[in-house]
TrEMBL record:
Its EC number is 2.4.1.187. It comes from Blastopirellula retiformator. Keywords: Glycosyltransferase, Transferase. The gene is tagA. GO terms for molecular function: N-acetylglucosaminyldiphosphoundecaprenol N-acetyl-beta-D-mannosaminyltransferase activity. The chain holds residues 2 to 203 of 261 of the full protein. This is Putative N-acetylmannosaminyltransferase.
Length: 202
């Protein structure tokens, strides 16, 4: 699909329905690679400048979507218009709403404070009965620097065998984490979704 270069970041010119159908195709594909979504905001552009590892994480992302209106407005000012914003916090519910009895969805929630993701799981399953939250985990402070802990998290997710991983670790932690570990994950797709697990918990 068409990409627009803004603040040094290549952003997909896609609307929500196209993104949902592309991710659904990935979820159903026999491919074993974990494809992931990042949703940059204008403040990410600033962090990206001095952070080559984060730039690489963005470059590896299969979908790069405009999280907020300021990104869309900037694209219009620069005469490379993006059609819409596609926020990570909207994308997770849109993917859940796309699940049906014939096409159910299994999801793992990684992140948010202890106790929040299990509450989100209950809400998700109440609201979208064709979504099965097959696991949740709230990593301890500083986990990202602990190799053994990261290995345990990868194994925990693979053992739960979700199709979709929702990462709610905040930016840029979630983008760096998925870029470092997606090679060993056996999930079809992952969404870096900021505070979405908190929103879903209500
Ligand atoms: N979070 C986490 N582990 C961390 C840091 C943050 O699970 O080490 C969670 C935090 O509890 C919240 C989410 O990440 O649920 C998003 O945090 P924030 O709002 O700061 O991120 P943003 O939405 O700005 O990316």
């Amino acid at each position: 699909s068409r990409r627009v270069k803004l603040f040094g970041v290549e952003i997909d010119a896609l609307r929500m329905p196209e993104v949902v159908s592309q991710i659904r195709r990935q979820l159903d594909s026999p491919e074993t690679k974990t494809e992931y979504v990042v949703t940059p905001n204008v403040d990410h552009a600033v962090i990206l400048q001095g952070n080559p590892e984060l730039q690489a994480a963005y470059a590896d992302a299969r979908w790069v979507l405009a999280d907020g209106w300021p990104v869309v407005w900037a694209s219009r000012l620069l005469r490379q218009p993006l059609p819409d914003r596609v926020a990570g916090s909207d994308l997770a519910p849109a993917l859940f709403a796309d699940a049906t009895e014939a096409k159910p969805l299994t999801v793992f929630l990684l992140g948010a404070a202890p106790g929040v993701a299990p509450r989100a799981a209950t809400e998700i399953q109440k609201r979208w009965p064709h979504v099965n939250v097959c696991g949740t985990y709230s990593p301890p402070l500083g986990f990202e620097r602990d190799d053994a802990e990261n290995e345990r998290i990868v194994e925990m997710i693979n053992a739960a065998a979700p199709q979709l991983l929702i990462l709610g670790l905040g930016a840029p932690k979630q983008e760096l984490w998925i870029a470092r570990h997606h090679d060993r994950l056996q999930v079809k797709a992952a969404v870096c979704a900021g505070a979405t697990i908190d929103f879903l918990a209500g």
